[in-house]
Amino acid sequence: MLINVNFNELLLELDSLSVYRNLLNDSVIKKLYELGDLIYKKEPGTDEFIKKYNEFFFELTSGSIQSLKEHIIELILFDENPYSRQSEKLPFENIDKVLIDAASKDLDRLHVISALTSRKFKDYALENICKSESEKRFIDSLPAWEFDGRSNQGKRKLSQNCQKMIDVLVSSNKWGECVKNLSDFYFTNGSGIFARYHAFVWEPSEKPSLRGVEFPDPIRLSDFIGYEQQRLEVIENTEKFVRGLPANNVLLYGDRGTGKSSTVKAIANEYREQGLRIIEIPRKYLVDFPAVLKLIKGRSCKFIIFIDDLAFEDSEESYTVLKSVLEGGVENRPDNVLIYATSNRRHLIKEKFSDRAGFKSDDPDDEIRAQDTMQEKLSLSERFGITVVFSSPDKKQFLQIVEGLVAKRGINIDKDTLQREAMKWELMYNGRSARTARQFVDWLEGSMKLKK
User: Fold this and answer.
1) What contacts 125, CB < 8 A, 6 or more positions away?
2) Statement: residue 363 has pLDDT above 60
3) Alpha carbon distance 131, 134 (integer Å)
4) What is the pLDDT of residue 305?
5) How far apart are CA 250 and CA 309, in angstroms?
6) What is the 3-state secondary structure (H, E, C) of the chain?
7) Rounded to 5 degrees, what are φ and ψ at 358?
8) Phi/psi of residue 76, nearest 5 degrees
9) Could you tell me the pTM of the whole model?
10) What is d(CA 338, CA 334) in angstroms, rounded to the nearest whole number?
11) Contact 209, 203 (CB under 8 A)
């Protein structure tokens, strides 16, 4: 459907936004508003028009998106407002009808705005602003902001659910009629940053916040060779969690390089479309755990709090915080949150021989109930409902992982040569592990391609 854009009504369309009013704070929309304001309220000179036009063009094309329609659609998908927040919690038929009506009208307004093209602006300037042929040449030379066959290189890959919703809006003749589709999208994917990203890192600063990860590790469960039984236990627990069934916190512990952290990240990628999100909290920031829980409590998405390489000194306050969350303090851990942690240590708090001094000591400063202290230190790992052990592979398992990776990548090499080179690599570098196997295959693939 061809949409006629009346420049005199552009500002009214933007000012009339009610539910999606946050979009007016977007830098691109601000520059568009300034351009429209210049045209509507003044009789601008060619120089003023060119300046505002190029400011808008620069802002629009500064990111990976180079289409106004594409930009507005992403703003709609990832906006957090009264309608999107209610939609993520309730099915469409239970949403306040006033909000539905307001959202539908906003979507129609945004559809009109999205139809603006660079050609429309330039034609307007040629007819109403230019006073000489030289000015017309300047206007004609202004860059267009519609691009055909744009490269996706460097562009963040959106989820399948996001892409489906984008396709619905792109193919629609009236965005207001897509209000139910949009509500269903929020219901499945959440709203705001939780619809935009599926992986986050907690970053304390003056204003502690979750940082969405633009390009998370793309590893998938199908990429792994070996440790199938260990992963199956974590997968089954996650399946229960995303379906709303009772599930356990999980501790993955064992030797370095065996794929513990990669397993958690792969699971987050695997269940992204089902509303699973992952938040990594660096160990030193575990004292902020309550602040993180406050941000995600009551959201529709399911959250895995990921703590990598977990181990504590006995004096750390974060130990007490984590123990309280695992056990359930005054404020319970929300039902939409699980903790997945990895560690190279079976007992997560370092125990010293001095801890045992209280068993038999003449020092008045030694603890009388030393046994209680020892048990307290050993008990943290037991507070995880499921513990999965990742041990270093033996020679046979190591070679099976190597051979599996080589087969996946289609590398053609004699089996005896492969095994001989793999064992040489293992001796020279980091010992037998899944990580060492992958590093060896990376080297092998690069070396073979270099010789061609």
Assistant:
1) 46, 49, 53, 139
2) no
3) 9
4) 95
5) 13
6) CCCCCCHHHHHHHHHCCCCCHHHHHCHHHHHHHHHHHHHHHCCCCHHHHHHHHHHHHHHHHCCCCCCHHHHHHHHHHCCCCHHHHHHHHCCHHHCCHHHHHHHHHHHHHHHHHHCCCHHHHHHHHHHHCCCCHHHHHHHHCCCCCCCCCCCCCCCCCCCHHHHHHHHHHHHCCCHHHHHHHHHHHHHHHCCCHHHHCCEEEEECCCCCEEEECCCCCCCCHHHCCCCHHHHHHHHHHHHHHHCCCCCCCEEEEECCCCCHHHHHHHHHHHCHHHCEEEEECCHHHHHHHHHHHHHHCCCCCEEEEEECCCCECCCCHHHHHHHHHHHCCCCCCCCCEEEEEEECCCCCECCCHHHHHHHCCCCCCCCCCHHHHHHHHHCHHHHCCEEEEECCCCHHHHHHHHHHHHHHHCCCCCHHHHHHHHHHHHHHCCCCCHHHHHHHHHHHHHHHHHHC
7) -65, -15
8) -65, -50
9) 0.83
10) 9
11) yes
Q: Are 15 and 110 in contact (CB under 8 A)?
A: no
Cβ-based neighbour number of residue 227 at 10 Å: 21
Quick check: 151 pLDDT over 50? no
In sign, the C-alpha dihedral spanning 79, 83, 89, 91 is negative
Residue with token string 């704070």: 25
179-189 and 97-114 helices, crossing angle to 10° = 110
Query: For residue 424, is pLDDT > 70?
Result: yes
pLDDT of residue 328: 60
In the chain, the percentage of residues whose pLDDT exceeds 90 is 61
Provide the 10 A C-beta neighbour count for residue 66.
Answer: 16
Give the lowest-confidence range in 195-204, 278-287, 318-327. 318-327
The confidence band for 370, taking pLDDT boundaries of 50, 70 and 90, is very low
